[in-house]
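Q: Could you fold this chain for me?
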Amino acid sequence: MSTGMTIFLATLVGTVSRFLLLEVDYRQYPSYPQGYLVHLALGAIAAFLGAVAIPALVNEDYTAATFLALAAQQFREVRNIERESLTRLEGSELVRRGTAYIEGIAKVFEARNYIAMLTAFLTSGVLFLLETPAWLEVLIAVGLSALLVSYLDRTLRGVRVGQYAQVEPAELHFIGPDLYVGDIQIMNVGGPTAREMILKHGLGAILIPKDINSRVTLAHIGQRQAIVHDVATILGIRKEVDEPEFTPMAKIDHETGRIGVYTMPVNKDSGALVTAIKHVPLLESAKKRPSAAISGRLAARRHD
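A: Sure. Below is the predicted structure, expressed as structure tokens.
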């Protein structure tokens, strides 16, 4: 197969792989069609750089390595652009994502450009180096690329909060002016009208960490902010900008490490709340493993 056709097919496969990883989910990000266009264009550039690497190296044109280094720098800029864009949007969110969640989203978009590059690199290598009939080369290249994209996509999706904690619905109630989710204090609500609204429309849930690692990870402020943001996004929220008492919260019980979550959804459905919390992504920046240290294991035994 000619070098030009090899580069074209590899670029096409890499671009298609980036398209398959584009997904407008409940967060409505990336937006459609503007966000699609931006990320597809960057994916096509990444795929082209991956496609030309093998032919360039085989022909001893080592300037290709320079282009790959420049590409890596450019994709880091993609992360910065995503971070800045989402940070600017924070002011218009009733329930903010938080910096940790934004950083996680930005890293994912950067990583997916590398997937497009790796897919094109693999396709180009198979097409350029194998000496078999052209149809068989294409079949092998597409098959291996599909396996690579599938594996990397599953890896990038990571784990969910439901894998780190047991999530149970809990009753909202007041002791004086203090709002409680089960036995976990959330906040002080002074106005009787607000207390009536909370009891009428509010929902609560308690997260019970499965081990010492889960307890430390879920206590992370960024992780708790991600939980309340996703809950508000999925279930809706009965809140205006000047109604802080209706702002969703996630508070820790310092004695047990449990987390009480309170929200004011548009549709009051405790089952939907539990499901939404379980499917919140676990942030990379929040993951901690104190059990890997001797002192952490000792602390876990005392806790048990």
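A (continued): The chain has two domains: 3-157, 162-303.
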